[in-house]
Amino acid sequence: MRLILLALWCFLGLAAPSHAAPTVSEVAHQIVCDCTSCGKQTIDQCMATCAHGKELAQEIRSQIELGKTQEQIVEHIGKTRGEQFLAVPSQSNFLGRMAPLAPFLLLLIGVIPIVYITRTRQRKARITGPKQTPQKIKSDDDRLDEALKTFDY
Amino acid sequence: MLPSIGHLLLLLALSCAVYQIGVNVVAYRMPEARRRPLLSSGFNASLALWWLVCAASGLLIYLFLTDDFSVNYVWAHSAKAQPLGYKVSALWAGQSGSLLFWTLLLTGYCALISVSGKRHERGGDPLQVQLAPTASAVVAGISLLFLYLVCFVTNPFETNPVVAPDGTGMNPLLQNYWMQIHPPTLYLGYVGCSVPFAWAAAALLHRQFGKDWVALVRRWTLIPWLILGMGILMGGKWAYETLGWGGYWAWDPVENASLLPWLTGTAFLHSIMIQGRRGMLKNWNMVLVSLTFLLSIFGTFLTRSGVVSSVHSFAESNIGAYFLVFLAISLVFSFGLIIWRRDELSSEFGFESVLSREGAFMLNNWILLGSAFAVLWGTIYPALREAVDGTSVSVGPPYFNIVMVPLGLMLLALTGIGPLMAWRRTTPAALGRTLVVPLCAALVTAPLLYWLSAWHTGAATAFCLSVFVLAGIVLEFVKGTRARVSMTGERAPQAFANLLLRNRRRYGGYTVHLGIALLFAGFAGSSGFNIETEPITLKPGETMRVGEYTLRFEQLVRPSPMPPEKKDEINAEVAVFLMPPEKITPQTQPMTILRPHIDIFNTSNAPEETQSGDDIQSARRPAIMSNLANDLYLALIEADEKAGTASIKAYLNPLVMWIWISTILFIAGTIIAVWPDRRAALAREHRDDAPAKPVRSAPPVARSKEKTR
Asked: For B394, which of A84, A100, A115 is closest by C-beta distance?
């Protein structure tokens, strides 16, 4: 089992993203259309239909031709046109950094009380014994559970 | 005359809802003996409420069918040339009509709950009889908001001072067959989030949180949850088939609003199993069911208040404040009830080990809740940021991919691990033994998948985890069948069928998990392995390549006759070959001919010579060739009729069909899980302590006296 997990870990370690030159669509996916009719869609969705999207796609194309990376083009558009054009808020200040981090922070903060409460309850149960002995439920599900134990491999 | 009758019907419905709530509140406070006539009256009021809203909705549909453009809503969303199906679906195409439709569904649920309670009076579930009037009154309470809105704020029967000869017609982008299927399904599921909340509120008021309540609320949650899930997937299919950008999900605020209650509802459906099995997490379940309902209201506030920008046309209006006030009232009501009953909501058994089914479900709950928070946070972040530091920012799909992909992968891993864990506790060694086969299956396929995805880590990991989940579930089916064969001596096919029939909840759940694994594989395939070309302008006979396919542009054509609702339609005929261009000869037969096209609509009834550019709207409709491996998706970007050229953008989206197939498993699994079990009903009837007649709850005062005695 440990060997399998080790193999999995090594394998995932090998995985690395490719570093090819970006396409217009890839960069356009990071830029938001700010026109009134597109409702903040990314440019890759509207560049075929919206004049504003077409103009931005052209700018992205010219930046790619200059040999810039995706990150550099996104940064350039953020600086020249404004942060509202970026599909991921800029990480330049605290509020920007909190945008992608907040959900994970909440998850982590929430896990602490859950683990604490669980451990406290387990400890209490060990000291005082279970509040009640679980009642025997003889449903098909339980019988199947019992039977399945002999089939574990 | 008819519009006035429609408005009157809505006013009567509002009075009926107030009456129903009133009699149920009075009945709740009364001694049992004097309660029956009031409950009967409340039952009748719930039916009257439903019929009145039905009549009002029917009347509005009639006004659409008869082209009565004196009604502003009919004028704004219909036209004489509009096909019949779209005239009917115009009911939910705009703000006030969709609110009326919402009311129709909500009052329908209200009547359904009342009828279910009545039906169980004759030897059925006594708990349902006891709780149904209160639950029905809670739903009627929710419908008060919507009835108030359609009566006094955004009346769908409002008339125009001058009657126009024709209407402006439905938004051309909505003129699609999905308009008749997707919104009603989504609304049915979304509005259905109120139903489990109503049963929970009734349970809290009547102090009934036992196993029977768990079975009851599970059934009434699974159905709206299934319908909401189907509605969300249908929305994805609609976007994919009609919008022409090659995707099915754009993390638009309206899409996010529908996902929020589905995520918390999923968490609730898992944690309610712990309550049913071990009598634990009663408080938590009440919080989750309330949160599911509150998020459905909050989502509606977000999308209808104009707080956030959306591509959906109904997003901006002046009714947001009403939803905000209602949300505050609901928050106080639901959490007030939970706090009031907190002592009675304590767990029956302790938590024995983190390494158990309960532990896995707790983690699953937390990640689902975290996912809901991530979606909510991303949706409201631009509004919050603007309020905090005045900076205008946007949050688009890349943000959601950064946040949701890890959460989704964690959930997928838990989908594989959780069901293999034992209740109460399991040892690491035992768990390891159970996981060996699924893990090996995932690892064997991993190199191929990582190589195929060009080391796109997220997609390949999702794929490996899907294989892990599939292997685990298939193994469970095999083990279960073998166990039955050895227990009963049945043949394998019969044992398999009986396994499904006699353990519906378990194997229905596994079938849904199969669907989830396929869904993630579809997501991974279509996002990690997709190929997309730049728009290429082709002359007739010229070719372009996408993946293994060669596309040859043939010609631009127009349909004959032109559909009446369209001003124009330009099709590009594209022949598809599965071979390199140099091997194609004039005699080579194409696999198929695809016709991506541009629809052009008039959005004004003014004579053509007086129309401006704003009166004409175009929509690009893609053409798709689907198979199990991939979708060839073509969009016509521009057509130059003088030069005879077409600018075509092609996408090769792998495994998209798996997403739609997963819906079938999702539906089948839920139906298996929710299908009534006759044996359970029989067991309930023969249970020693079950009363022969339905038991009405004692009023709170009397019960507290009993307690002191």
From this structure: A84
Task: Select from A67, A66, A69, A74 the least CA-distant residue to A28.
Answer: A74
Cβ contact (<8 Å) for B369 and A38? no
Query: At residue B291, what is the residue type?
Result: L
**Which residues on chain B are in Cβ contact (under 8 Å) with A106?**
370, 373
Q: Is A58 on the interface with B (CB under 8 A)?
A: no
Q: What is the pLDDT of residue B274?
A: 87
Residue of B nearest to A120 (CA): B351
Q: Report the pLDDT averaged over residues B681-703.
A: 47
Nearest to A151 among B348, B424, B482 (CB): B482
| Separation of alpha carbons B350 and A122, rounded Å | 7
Task: Give which of B660, B673, B689 is closest to B506, Cα–Cα.
Answer: B673
Number of continuous H segments (helices) and E segments (strands) in chain A: 7, 0
Å from A59 to nearest chain B CA? 15
Interface check A49 vs B, CB under 8 A: yes
Instruction: Check: CB of residue B182 under 8 Å from CB of residue B231.
Output: yes
Question: Which residues are CB-contacts of B330 (< 8 A; sequence separation ≥ 6)?
Answer: B142, B293, B294, B297
Taking the C-alpha atoms of residue B229 and residue B660, their distance in angstroms, rounded to an integer, is 12
CA distance B142 to B83: 34
Q: Say yes or no: A21 contacts chain B, CB-CB below 8 A.
A: no
Closest-CA residue of B relative to A16 is: B455
Give the model's pLDDT for residue B125: 81
Q: Is the distance from CB of B313 to CB of A97 less than 8 angstroms?
A: no
Distance CA B314, CA B254 (A): 10
Residue B535, Cα to own-chain centre: how many angstroms?
Answer: 34
B576: left (phi over 0), alpha (psi -120 to 50) or beta: beta
| The pLDDT of residue B637 | 87
Note the maximum CA span of chain B: 96
Rounded to whole angstroms, the Cα distance separating B591 from B59 reads: 49
Token look-up 């009076």 returns B121
Q: Which of A152, A114, A80, A100 is nearest to B404 (CA)?
A: A100
Beta bridge partners of B616: B602
Q: What share of chain B is helix, strand, coil (3-state, %, to 5)?
A: 65, 10, 25
| CB-CB under 8 Å, B455 with A39 | no
Chain-chain contact of A153 with B433 (C-beta, under 8 angstroms)? yes
Q: Is the peptide bond before B561 cis (omega within 30 degrees of 0)?
A: yes
Decide: B445 and B467 in contact? Cβ < 8 Å. Answer: yes
| Per-range mean pLDDT, top range of A55-69, B103-117, B170-184 | B103-117
Q: Compute CA B395 distance to the chain's CA centroid, rounded to the nearest angstrom.
A: 22
For chain A, the straight-line distance linking the first and the last C-alpha, in angstroms and rounded, comes to 13
What are the residues whose beta carbons fall under 8 Å from the beta carbon of A8, sequence distance 6 or more? B439, B442, B443, B446
Q: CA quadruple B499, B503, B506, B509: dihedral positive or negative?
A: positive
Spatial neighbors of B401 by CB under 8 A, at least 6 apart, are B458, B527
Percent of chain B with pLDDT over 70: 91
Q: How many CB pairs under 8 A join A and B?
A: 205
- CB contact (8 A) between residue B393 and residue A145: no
